[in-house]
Please model this.
Amino acid sequence: MKNKLLFSVAIATAMSLSACTWVKPTAGGENVVLVKDYNVKDCKKLGSTTTNVADKIGIIKRDPETIQKELATLAKNTAAKMGGDSIVATSPLQDGTMTFAIYKCKP
Model:
């Protein structure tokens, strides 16, 4: 009985952690926006970045929405370091990885 209780607690903890986000925006990253490709037609492309995070904890799959938010935050942080102010997702989420184009739109 005690083992079942411990197992249940472990599963509940893992499932709750799968929705948590650990990636935090930097001061500069907070000012970068995720936009669609049609919003950057008059912008200067600075480069691209591929970001990745864990897509599962042990055998528990993490929430795809949480993963996408973390990946975008990492891309925003990178864009800020490169002098960018906008990012565009250029690949779908796959195995905890996405690619983003980085743009400078504001003068």
Summary: The helical segments are 2-17, 64-82.
